[in-house]
Structures are given as structure tokens and as C-alpha cells.
Amino acid sequence: MAVDLSDRADAAVFLRRLLRLDPATLVRLCPAGPGRVALWASLPWGVLVTRTVAGHVDRDRVAAASALLEGVAEPPVLDDRWRGALPPATARAVERLPAAVVGGAAAAAAQALRDVETTGVKGRVVGQRVLRDALLDHVVVSGTSDVDGVAFAVPQRLVQGLVRMGFLGTAEVTVVTAGTWTGLAGSFGTAWFRTPVLSVRPIATRPIG
Asked: Are residues 12 and 56 in the same domain?
């Protein structure tokens, strides 16, 4: 697989942030038009993040983030290790949020985690993983688009993905939807989360007694 990330400094920022969160992170590289490559990766809390950089890849491929950061020209192909789909290519903007509001939500969650780790909840000790999951699932913003009436909900896990990957910037953040996916698009990249779809199976009938 031939990979050419022309603006190595730009790509390196994305890759280093990924590797700090998970040294074994995989990156999916997708052609994104002439001279552009979309980099995709999954964060440990179930959020996909993407940033488009200058470069070229022969076709949709998966490689280790560490190999890409090292500048390996032909990194080992790891396509079979990628799990899950990508959001549909066509997305629509449903809301715009001030960057300060999104950053404030991330900071508030971090402070809440520190407070509970210190004092517990009403004096009771709470497991860190339980607390983390509750915070990540907390809906920060919800509403209905003024444009087309589409309902949306932005969980804290999306906010954390945007902020911890350095995508926030100082401009507005756009809430986007694509099918069952919700995304937060910042100045330097987008974080996506797919709402789980529950499947209900019929209960087999059998005589009682």
C-alpha cells in the first residue's frame, strides 16, 4: 500500500493525539479528492474521529497509526482488523453551537469526574468506570433543527472526542447528522457517534404450566 501524507506536520498532530489515547490505534485512510486523504480512527469510548489532510492513498486502506507517524511509505495492510462502518458521505447540518459552550461542557465533565473521585456521590464511593460511562452518555445538547425538523442529541462522548483530538478551535461547532450518526464538526476535524439500534426479537411461545 503506497501512502503519501504530503503535509506530515498536519497529519502528525492527529496521529500523536490518537496514540496518546491508545498506542495500538488503527487509522483508516480514504481517498478524499485530488491530493486529499481522509484519516479515520476510533477512540476508546466508541467515537469515530476524522480529519482530512494533504496526501494520496491508492485506495481505502487501514494501517497502524504508529507506522504512519513514523513515515513508513508502505505500512502493513491491516484491513481485516478494522471494525465497524463509517458514517454516510452525505451529512446535513442541524445546529450551530458556540465553541465556548462546547469547551465549557467538556471542562464541566472533567471537573465533575474529579469531584466525585474525591468525595463520592452523596458520600458513597462510585466506581470510576461507572462514573465515566455515565458522564459520557450524558446528553449535553438536544433539540430539533429549525431547518428540517430533525431531532438531535449530542452526548458528552462526542464533546470529549472533539476536544481531546484538538478539533474545537474558536469558531462555531456544527452539529451534523447522517442516518443514525450524529457528529460535531469543529475547525480542525469531526467527531462522530452512532446511536445504538436496539433489535427486538419475538419471544418464542410455549405452553405455560
From this structure: yes
DSSP 70-98: TT-SSPPP-GGG--SPPPPS--EEEEEE-
- Provide Rg for the chain, Cα atoms: 20
pTM of the model: 0.86
Give the three cell numbers for residue 71. 513515515
Greatest Cα pair distance, the chain, in angstroms, is: 71
| Selection from 198, 163, 192, 199 nearest residue 85 by Cα | 192
Backbone angles phi, psi at 161, to 5 degrees: -60, -45
CATH number of the domain to which 64 belongs: 3.10.150.10
Domain range for 188 is 92-194
Query: Could you report the per-residue pLDDT of 69-125, keeping only the tens digit for each?
Result: 999 888 999 999 998 999 998 899 999 999 999 999 999 988 887 776 666 555 555
Angle at 160 between CA 155 and CA 162, to 5 degrees: 100
Q: What percent of the chain has pLDDT over 90?
A: 63
User: Hey, what long-range contacts does 73-77 have (CB within 8 A, 24 or more apart)?
Assistant: 73/2, 73/3, 73/4, 74/1, 74/2, 74/3, 75/1, 75/3, 77/1
Dihedral in degrees, nearest 10, Cα atoms 75, 28, 48, 106: 40
State whether residue 63 is helix, strand or coil: strand
Do 34 and 8 lie in one domain? The reply is yes
